[in-house]
Amino acid sequence: MKKLIFGFKNAIAGIVFCIKTCRNFRIHMVFAAYVLYFSGFYEPDTATFAALILTISLVLVLEAVNCALEQVCNALTTKYNLMIKHAKDAAAGAVLISAVFAVIVGIRVFYDPTVLAQIYNYFISVPIRAAVLIITLALSIIFIFYKDLFKSGKQKN
Fold it and tell me: Tell me: the pLDDT tens digits for 31-68?
């Protein structure tokens, strides 16, 4: 039982590490949060919601693997190495492919002019809703770029 708990503790530490050190991971988390929030306006069926969750999971998992690979490669050498470059590029490419397909899934699921108009009216009809949305967007930007905003001179991902 201790090994199981230790394993979960390490996994959570890995997720926290990705959040703290990988700006792209934070970007994907923010987009995931907004996708899940706005999906409520569409009342997706179980299969559609499962597709959204799987798509979000795929992007986040690949971004975490990319972050891990970058850490391993950076630990191996600080010198330029063409094979390491190719490994990092391939991992980043995998994330890009999953993100592009996530956008395609998002367009397929969320492009409905009627619902988009309802969302617009939902926020415009009650100014506090629009204000809260703007505040969450500002907080999201701070969350995404917090290392860039508060710590200069550090390596940026």
Answer: 999 999 999 999 999 999 999 999 999 999 999 999 99
Read off the tokens for 154: 């550090």
Half-sphere exposure (CA, 13 Å, Cβ side) for 120?
A: 6
Q: Which residues are catalytic?
A: 63
Domains of the chain with CATH codes: 2-150 (1.10.287.3610)
Q: From CA 68, how far away is CA 9, in angstroms rounded?
A: 17
71, 13 contact by CB (below 8 A) = no
The model carries a pTM of 0.88
Please state, in angstroms and rounded to a whole number, the distance separating the CA atoms of residues 34 and 38: 6
Q: Per residue in 145-156, is it b (16+ CB within 10 Å) or e — as a string?
A: eebeeeeeeeee
One DSSP character per residue, 115-142 reads HHHHHHHHHHHSHHHHHHHHHHHHHHHH
